Every structure is written in C-alpha cells, then in structure tokens.
Amino acid sequence: MTPPSPRPISRRQLLGFGIGAAATGLLAGCAVPGSTNVNKAGVIPAAASGETVQITYWAWLKDLQKVCDVWNAKNPHIQVTANWIPGGNSGGYQKMYSALAAGGGPDIGQVELRQIPEFMLANGLVDLARYGAKDHESKYDEAAWAQVSFVDGVYGIPQDTGPMGFYYQTALLEQAGGEPPATWDEWRELADKVRKTGPQNYLEVFPVADASPFAAYAQQAGARWFKVDGDEWVVDMTDDKTLMVADFFDGCIDDKLVDTSAGAYTPGWYASAASGKIAAVTSASWGDALIESVQGGEGKWKVAKMQTWGDTGYGSSAIGGSTAAVLANAKHPEEALEFITWMTTSKEGIDAMIKYCGIGWSPAVDYIGKQREQPSKWFSGQNYNEEVFVPASKEQNIDWSWSPVTQSAFTSLQNQFRRKLTSGLKLRDAVELAQKEIVQSFKDKGLSVRTAR
Amino acid sequence: MSTQPNTAFRTSTKATRAQKRAPWVLLAPFLALFVLTFIIPIISALFQSFTTVDRKGLFGEDGVTGRFAGFDNYVTALNDSGFVASIGRMLLFGIVQVPVMIIACTILALLLESASARWPGFFRAIYFMPYGVPGVIATILWSFLYVPGLSPIVALLQSIGLQPDFLGANSVLWSIANIVTWTYTGYNMLIIVAQLKSIPGEVYEAAKMDGAGPIQVAWRIQIPLIAPALVLTTVFSIIGTLQLFAEPQILSTVAPAIDTEYTPNYAAYTNAFAFNEYGVASAQAVIIALAAFILSFAFLALTNRPPKEERDQRKRAKKDGLEARRALQTRASAVRPVTSQAAPSLQGGSGLHNETKGADA
Fold first, then answer.
1. I need a surface site. Which of A39, A230, A341, B351 has the fewest CB within 10 A?
2. Does the interface ipTM go beyond 0.85?
3. Residue B326: which pLDDT band, with cuts at 50, 70 and 90?
4. Which chain B residues are within 8 Å of A151, Cβ to Cβ?
5. What are the structural domains, with CATH classification, of chain A?
6. Residues B48-91 pLDDT 10s
7. Alpha-carbon Rg of chain A, whole angstroms?
8. How far apart are CA B18 and CA B28, in angstroms?
9. Which of A21, A39, A117 sits opposite B39 (nearest CB)?
10. What phi-psi label fits residue A86: left (phi over 0), alpha (psi between -120 and 50 degrees) or beta?
C-alpha cells in the first residue's frame, strides 16, 4: 500500500472530539448574541472622497437590483448590491438574525415597521439619528416616521406603508342594495344585506388566524397597545377602543355576518371572490395588486374610503409596510443612509421602486409615483390612489407604535381568537387573555413591563 | 489453552487490528457529519434549555446578559397549557392514526405478497409513490381538496346535501391524519414486504401441505413472522407522530383551528424562530425527545414480552439441540448409528411450531 497513512481516529480521539464538540456547543450556548450595542460605540466616519464604497442590501423585494442599478449609474463611489432573501418570517429574518449573531450581515436589511423593535431587542440596528436621519424627517409621512422612532433614535427608514381603503365589487353591492359604508355601523348593515343575497355570500372575511386586520381596526379606533413609561413598557390592550372593536366583531361573528373560514388573499378567498361570494375587503393599498389576481375581476372592483368608527378614531389605518434599516454590522452607515433617502424620497427612486419592485404605498410626503397618479383600468377606470389612499395616508393614528414582542403578540392574539371558533370564547376575553401572555413574553425577554389597567 | 495456538492467535490479532481500524476509517465521514449536525446541536440545545437572558433598558440597549436558569424553562414549557395540550393531542392522534396505518400497510403488504396478486411490482410502486412526494407539497395538494370552493370532493358532497368541514376545529386533526396515512402507509408497507420476502418458501409449502388456505397462511404464518417489522414500523410511527410539524404548519394557512402550538414541534418552532426564545424552545425540544423515548420504550417493553418467552424457549431448545449434538458427536465417535439420535432434534423443531401457535393465541 501507499506510505503509512495518517493514524486513523482512535476511539479515545473520537471521545476527545466529542468532548471538544460538546465544549464548543457549550460556548456557543454561553455567548449571548446581540449583547453588544453598536450605538454605544463611536460613529463610523464617511469614506474618504475618491474611495469607492460597496454596500449590500438584503430584501425580499423583487428586482431590487434594477433600482440599485439606477443609483449605481449615477453614484460611482457608492455601489449598492441587492441580495434577495425570503420574505420576513418565512426565513428572511431568521437569516438576518443569524448573520447578526455571527457578527456579519449586510449594510441594509428590509425590516417591517412592526418588526423594528424586535430587531432593536437583538441589538441589530444602527441608530440613524447619529448619522443625520432626523434632517430628513419632514420628507416622510408622520405615522410611518413615528414607527421607526424610539428612545430619541431613528432605527430604520420607511420605504413602503399600507394605508387602508375599502375594496368592493360594484355589482354585488348593487345587488344587495347597498353602497360603500361610511362607518362600521353602516358596514354591518351592508354585511347583513349581502348575507341575504345567498347562503354562502358574505361582505367580508374576518380572519381569526391573522390578527393584523384586528390590530389595524383597533389602531384606527385610537387604541395604543404599547407605550413607553421611562424604562418600562406599558401594555394597554383592554382599553375602551380595543374592547369596542372586539365586541363589534364578536357580534358580527355571532350573527354570521362575516366569513371566518380563511383570511383574505388565501386560495379559498380567491375562489370565493371570483365566484361572487365575497363582495369586499377592507385592506391596505398594496392589496390592489393582490386583488388584481382575482379571476375575471377586471372592471368589477372599485375602492372607497375606509369606514370609520363614527365620532372616535381616525379616517384610516394601516397594515404592513417595511423599512430599509441599517444593520448593526454595517461598515458604511452614512453612505447607506444616503442611498436609502434617495430610494425612498426622490422621484426617480420611488418610480423605480414601483416599476420594478411593486412596493406598497410610498411614505414620501409629496410624491406617490408616476404610475399611481393615473386612473386604473382594472379598477373600473377609477383613480383610486389619489382619491382614496392619498387622504388615507394622512389620516393615520400617529400615536401607534409596535413593541419588541410583536411576533408573540400576534401569535397570542391569533391563538386566542381561534378559540372563538373552537370553543366560543368571546373576542373581548380573547384580547384580555392574549394581553396576559404578551406581558409574560415581555418578562421572558427580561424586560420590565406592566399593564395600563 | 496450550501454547501452540498462541502464536496463531498473535497473527490473527494483527489482522483484527487492521480490521478494527477499517470501520472507523470508513465511518469517519459519516461520524464527522453526524457529530456536526446531530450531536453538537443536541448538546447545544440541552445547554440552552438551562439558560435565559436578562436585559436592561427598553430594548436591552443598556446591556444584555445570559445566565443559568436551572429548570425555569422546563417549568415555563410545562406550565404552558397549549404545549401540554399539544402533547395530549398527539397522543390522541397516535392512538388512532398509528393503528389504522399499521393495519392498512399490513393488509396491503399481505395482498401484494399473496400468491394471487397481479402485477405486484407495479402496485408496490404505486403504493409507495406518495412517500416520494415531499410532505409540504403533499399538504398543499391535500389542502386544495379540503378547502370549500376549490375542492371537488367538498363540491360533490355538497351536491348530495352534505356539509363537510374538513378544516373545522374537531375535524382538522383527522384531515392531518389522512395526509400522514396517505404518505406513510406505502413506506411502512415496503418494510413489511421486505420482511415477508425473507420467509422461506418451505414454510409456505408446509402450510399448504397441512391444508392451510390463504387467510390461514396470512394469520398463522405471515403475521407472526413479520411481528418484528410491525414493531419497528410502529415505533417509527410513534416517533413520527410526536414530530409532526410540516402538515399542520402548512394547513394552518387554510385552517383557522390550527394554532402555533397545535403540535409540540410547532410550539418549539414558534418559540425559537418567531419569539427568539431559544431557552424555552430548547426545553420543549428536550421534552419532546424524552416523550418519544418513553413512548417508544413503553411500546417495546409491551411488545417484547411474548417474544422474550419465545427467545427463552428458543435458547432452551438451542441448548437442548447443542446437548443433543454433543451427545451425538460423542456417540458418533464411539458408535456408528446416528439416525436413531436424529429424533430429539426433530422434536425440538415441532416444539418451535407449537410456540408460534402459542404466540397466535
């Protein structure tokens, strides 16, 4: 045979490996990812003039590179590369969290508005106020800006939002003898009328398995679930406004006015909407692209202003929306911020984001995008963006903010809401039970917290 | 022993040392990956299940420290009524689904291996095919058959006046059971078919000679002889049940009754990747592993009892046989006639026969 081969692994050595592996495992377990706070370290200075800076951006927007290319062509010294990641909780966040824990990751990452505090909890975001982000505050919608501002800092730049409106099928509302509702009470009457047109016909769905719409309705009514009091979080989900919304939908479910079998934009929903069994959906501005995939729906849909809670609350609300956030291990935060402001406030950047990425509502105050200034053929020739969503983006609950336990808050709410169907739990009680779990998750994270009442 | 065979022994130990080395060398690639992707994560999860994190400030911006938490995470996990309920749900699921599947796969295997089976190869492939469909895809496909408005099955039942709700609070568990059964019956069938194929042909011949019909053959010969395979597939199924994850997770998008703690694994997943609560998630994972361990062992202990007796009897029979052979040898060296001594060993064989009959009863 060939020269003496290296000694194969003996059993003892193997045991040694095992122990070594165990030790590394233990060490890995010991280190607490995200225990260092970059915002306590010095500010990273801008690159010297003439030096070319490479920036990476992780996002789940499609064709984002084409937007970056528009910028790259004009800014040879700041070159941005887009890398596609799976959307948010489908894997994108997990990827960013693990990159952050390993001390790496991109300069910019796409983080939903509601997720910003959770990333702060992982010490994963750069405070952009230290790089002059506050100079740009006036260029953005107030509500969106409020959701990225915490403890005197700015932790992400809004890149799209989701002001809400009421999408409806004109023929189905006519058949029921109704009009787009101005208030939720009118909405309920309309739901009743639509129910009478057929045993499987509903005005809308109320998804118990997705709490985002419920949160948006409570937000519209003027609720503030999460507040900060000094060094303490205050959870307030059992306020009058939230309970009013809970009772309202409790009644709607009890009277079988809403379809609870599935959420909007699920396969079953599309089938029902196409066959005229679902007449409307109260949804965010980005819902337009999704509704356009309803088969044979062209020319049948229109958009109206969102129904309000009468004399309390706001004209509209919001679902979704994301930011371009500078992640903790970014090497060039200042240049990254420069690119982000261009992308989110310049006409060129916004048009490119709409054209290539199909982003939601642009949070820039004075420009909605060229495409969106024109009437839509699909939506019965209505110029709904200017008619409905421009005012909706101004009529937001600007006091609303998310918390570092958004994910568990939604999960708790959803798990309790499901009990409405499985065991007849009242939504009001579901919210109260969920609040208990949410307070517990704050405590589990090692944060100080109390309930407001 | 004498000194003479000693030298012979030495050479043989040299050979065995190389032989001893060989398996480790061959195993090394596997072991390296096994340690990296299996042992280390398990140890790390065990460790994490005893740790927790403290934070200062609203977001931990003023400092984050990890500390040893004792059994706190286990207490949290076991105090979580949703998690405990999910284990109960999986027990219910297992008690119903595992027997149904094992019986179904046994029947399929017996049919395919029966003498009158036509195109057994073709049908074996057909039955096995669902296992080749990834669980996620299978669940998406099945969800289209469950969702009202899309499903032809629901439409058909509705047209004859029924109102089926495959995704309701009480029915969705069995809709999941259906998917799991559909996926794994063929796979388990294949294990049993393999065991059936190892039954020697003489046994069948003997049964035929004794006048056993196909059902008698199946009941008295095949089923007792495939018992080990049945035990194996059942243990695998029990473990698989506790690890149920993909099916409920995918179905949750169309079935509001499925929450994020519907199965134990789903609960651990949610804690780890939605809440970043690695400590509690690890504790839950350890509890799941322990539960699978206990259940599998309980089942093995339960099923092992009769075969143990059998084994003892076999041992006894072997001993008898050995003694008989020894006696035979000593006699053979002394006297010629052997034939008369063959009788006891034959008796031993008939004794074995009786035992299998006893196991049937």
1. A230
2. no
3. confident
4. 57-59, 61
5. 46-161+319-382 (3.40.190.10), 209-257+405-453 (no CATH)
6. 899 888 888 888 777 788 888 889 999 989 988 889 999 999 99
7. 25
8. 15
9. A21
10. beta
